[in-house]
Amino acid sequence: MIITVTPNPSIDRTIAVDDLRAGQVHRATSSRIDPGGKGINVSRALTAQDSPTLALAPLGGPEGHLLGELLATAGVAHRPIDVGGSVRMNVAVVEPNGTTTKLNEPGPVLSDGEAQALLAATADAAVGATWVLGSGSLPPGAPTNWYADLVAAARDRGTRVAIDSSGAPMAAALAACPTLIKPNLDELAELVGRPLTVLGEVVDAAYELVEEGIALVYVSLGADGAIVVGNDVLAYARATITAPLSSVGAGDCLLAGVLDALAHGADPVGALRQGVLWGAAAVTLPGSRVPTPEDLIGIPVQVDAHLDRSLALAG
Ligand SMILES: Nc1ncnc2c1ncn2[C@@H]1O[C@H](COP(=O)(O)OP(=O)(O)O)[C@@H](O)[C@H]1O
Ligand SMILES: O=P(O)(O)OC[C@H]1O[C@](O)(COP(=O)(O)O)[C@@H](O)[C@@H]1O
């Protein structure tokens, strides 16, 4: 069982328009809502592939109630933590050429007690789990070291822990040495404090984090695929998608594929292959829809242990 915790979940509304222009009135051509937040997306992707998972999240207010209903409809096992503030609504505006503009709300303020209750519930659920994943931004009010505390709590219970966040909460979590992290290119550049433009620079940056004690660093590189770096582990994988539809949540699907494979005993490179497959399949689907087994059919994944360090990245 893979436990996910999403301290700042969302309802994701995807709105399609012909041509987005700031300051103008637009008539949408379509719209949809999906359950959102990074850990929730990972649990959705795992559920769609029949992989056991439990999603924990603070589900407050009418939006929290709606999010719980959406998760139940999708068959995602979840444990709501009751909080006073309402779940946020994040908006993605999608244009026909695939350009996506995202507006993410900050989320409700969590009190100290609510942040502690979420941590305690996750620590309880971690006992006997294959992995615990903490993912996404922290809502206002949650302490910056919330993910660092989660890493310590999971380690105390003998459970492997993955963290996928950004900014100060991610930097604090790194110091606590999670088992695995999944930054994208921008997040890795932020963690090492320098721009990364070619594959060799990404590999070197990921190695620095491995040397600090992170066992496995998976870096997602959008259309350029992903790498895994660990002690004695280095591989690059990519899949070519001819008609990408929406990249919202692709990183979450990649991480779901990686954790599912590792939970089933795959080696880190096999897990990279499955992660890239699930991530690539996600971009063929609208909004943040997650791939089913049928959606994975016919997507070829190339895995290469000898990577071209000079490969320029699209960023
Ligand atoms: N245009 C694309 N074509 C093929 N695969 C893609 C494309 N965009 C994303 N992916 C796959 O999805 C993964 C996650 O995407 P990425 O944008 O890097 O994550 P995040 O959502 O975390 O920023 C990538 O590593 C890649 O495997
Ligand atoms: O917690 P954050 O960083 O604001 O991100 C939340 C957003 O990320 C997602 O989980 C995935 O979106 P991305 O494409 O930005 O990875 C959305 O469902 C959600 O709206």
UniProtKB/TrEMBL annotation:
InterPro entries: 1-PFruKinase, Carboh/pur_kinase_PfkB_CS, PfkB_dom, Ribokinase-like, Tagatose/fructose_Pkinase. It holds the Pfam family PfkB. CDD domains: FruK_PfkB_like. Its EC number is 2.7.1.56. The keyword Signal does not apply. Residues 11-294 form the Carbohydrate kinase PfkB domain. The keyword ATP-binding applies. It catalyses: beta-D-fructose 1-phosphate + ATP = beta-D-fructose 1,6-bisphosphate + ADP + H(+). Keywords: ATP-binding, Kinase, Nucleotide-binding, Transferase. It comes from the Bacteria. Catalyzes the ATP-dependent phosphorylation of fructose-l-phosphate to fructose-l,6-bisphosphate. Belongs to the carbohydrate kinase PfkB family. This is 1-phosphofructokinase. The lineage of its organism: Bacteria, Bacillati, Actinomycetota, Actinomycetes, Micrococcales. The gene is pfkB.
